[in-house]
């Protein structure tokens, strides 16, 4: 009897040993039984994947150079994630003996992996940043902000006219932003990406999307993205209505088509390059049609459903009224101007993830196995906290300087982390990789731009909703005449 041996390391979180047989159960994988020695043979069929090179990001089929071909050429079924990643599984004419014990089959991979002490250093570095930001936010909340609220609630109207600070912009702080349509669309897409990422990482942390189950991670992410069109439409429509928008049809269509369309167009161009180069990573035409069917047949209708319920709900009620005439913003210092504040806002969140980012880029471009999803999920939570706290701090400083344009700034402050990600990806390309050739270079930066866009929407949405909660909270506890 011939059975497949998977060629990737599996982080085993749950291991059930059955006394009646010698089989394993790995989360995310179907149980596999092997013949006992002397009872039907002890050879296992080998499956080969693809040929890679450190000088190219173009993978090719294993037998493209006309060697090691199997006369039978049986191809096992491949899931959506394997097809998107260019996994072309084929049979090998060779068998593998089982002289290596089953429990020790991945030891050579573990030896080649970076030591986990680096991961713990990354976590400790991120926690120090979080503690620093948490201390700053606590100081603002418990001391400065508390004193401000007490003073504003005690002074009479004449004294209030002479005061300066964040209370003086209460009549303008909830004035709808410019380009509110685009902001609401970005926030709807960011919410969809956030929920998709959280669920995917949580399942991977439990072991159900382990690297041994090839393509499972990408398949799960794509399916979740398709099914999460409803919250995207709801958030976008509800915020757009709060901004006073009336072009609800345009809002729905942009939410369903704008950002996914940019990603698909980039992905389609990259696929054309792969097809011209004859790479095994080129997506078949049928799979592209299936992706479009999932997009327009499931995701778009679900976005329409979410938008319908979002527009049926009343606009979010603000704690203070908005004046008819906008207040003039005083001259700002260098550090409270929009661009310097946005640039500074992305530094700390990026500082929490750059070490983990190195391992992720290694797994994508340097053909290393990534299996430490527990660390990744922890860094994900730290990133949420850091983006929220850094954006709230800068928002408070700008409001104290009587600059009430916080809507877009809150989104761009944390979203600017994606710019640092792109800069790091450029540095990684020139310092760590040995890629040559125009096609490989275009593919690297093409896929990097998809990552940057997704990360921009994700981090920007976190910062916006953190500031939205903060601004609503502080203006709901002050007395406004």
TrEMBL record:
Cellular localisation: Membrane
Keywords, ordered alphabetically: Membrane, Signal, Transmembrane, Transmembrane helix
Membrane topology: Multi-pass membrane protein
Residues annotated as signal peptide: 1-23
Subcellular location, principal: membrane
One GO CC annotation: membrane
Residues passing through the membrane, by range: 120-142, 185-209, 215-240, 252-276, 288-311, 342-365, 371-399, 411-430, 442-471
Keyword Magnesium: no
Record bears the keyword Disulfide bond: no
InterPro entries on file: EMP70 (IPR004240), MFS_trans_sf (IPR036259)
Pfam families: EMP70 (PF02990)
Protein's GO biological process: protein localization to membrane
Similarity annotation: Belongs to the nonaspanin (TM9SF) (TC 9.A.2) family.
Protein's name according to its UniProt entry: Transmembrane 9 superfamily member
Lineage: Eukaryota, Metazoa, Chordata, Craniata, Vertebrata
Gene name linked to the record: tm9sf5
């Amino acid at each position: 009897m011939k059975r497949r041996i998977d060629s990737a390391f599996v982080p085993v979180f749950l291991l059930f040993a059955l006394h009646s047989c010698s089989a394993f159960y790995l989360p995310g994988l179907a149980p596999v039984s092997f013949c006992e020695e002397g009872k039907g043979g002890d050879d296992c069929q080998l499956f080969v994947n693809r040929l890679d090179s450190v000088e190219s990001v173009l993978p090719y089929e294993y037998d493209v150079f006309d060697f090691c071909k199997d006369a039978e050429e049986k191809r096992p079924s491949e899931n959506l994630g394997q097809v998107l990643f260019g996994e072309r599984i084929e049979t090998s004419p060779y068998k593998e003996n089982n002289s290596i014990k089953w429990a020790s089959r991945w030891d050579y991979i573990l030896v080649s992996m970076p030591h986990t002490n680096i991961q713990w250093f990354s976590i400790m570095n991120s926690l120090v940043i979080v503690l620093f930001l948490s201390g700053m936010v606590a100081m603002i909340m418990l001391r400065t902000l508390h004193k401000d609220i007490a003073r504003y609630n005690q002074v009479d109207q004449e004294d209030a006219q002479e005061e300066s600070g964040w209370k003086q912009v209460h009549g303008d702080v909830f004035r709808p932003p410019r380009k509110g349509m685009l902001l609401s669309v970005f926030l709807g897409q960011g919410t969809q990406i956030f929920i998709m990422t959280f669920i995917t990482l949580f399942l991977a942390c439990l072991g159900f999307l382990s690297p041994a189950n090839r393509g499972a991670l990408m398949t799960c992410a794509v399916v979740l993205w398709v099914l999460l069109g409803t919250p995207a439409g709801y958030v976008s429509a509800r915020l757009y209505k709060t901004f006073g928008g009336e072009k609800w049809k345009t809002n729905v269509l942009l939410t369903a088509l704008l950002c996914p369309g940019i990603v698909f167009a980039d992905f389609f161009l990259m696929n054309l390059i792969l097809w011209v180069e004859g790479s095994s990573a080129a997506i078949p035409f049928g799979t592209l049609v299936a992706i479009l069917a999932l997009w327009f047949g499931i995701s778009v209708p679900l976005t329409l459903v979410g938008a319908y319920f979002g527009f049926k709900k009343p606009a979010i009620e603000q704690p203070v009224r908005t004046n008819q005439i906008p207040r003039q913003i005083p001259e700002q210092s260098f550090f409270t101007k929009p661009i310097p504040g946005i640039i500074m806002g992305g530094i700390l969140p990026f500082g929490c993830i750059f070490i983990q980012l190195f391992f992720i880029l290694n797994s994508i471009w340097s053909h290393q196995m990534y299996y430490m999803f527990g660390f990744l999920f922890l860094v994900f939570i730290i990133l949420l906290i850091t983006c929220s706290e850094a954006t709230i701090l800068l928002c408070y400083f700008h409001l104290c300087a009587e600059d009430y344009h916080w809507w877009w700034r809150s989104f761009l402050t944390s979203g600017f982390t994606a710019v640092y990600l792109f800069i790091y990806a450029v540095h990684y390309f020139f310092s760590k990789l040995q890629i040559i050739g125009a096609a490989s270079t275009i593919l690297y930066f093409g896929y990097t731009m998809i990552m940057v866009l997704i990360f921009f929407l994700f981090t920007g949405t976190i910062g916006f909703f953190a500031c939205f909660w903060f601004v609503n909270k502080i203006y709901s506890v002050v007395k406004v005449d």
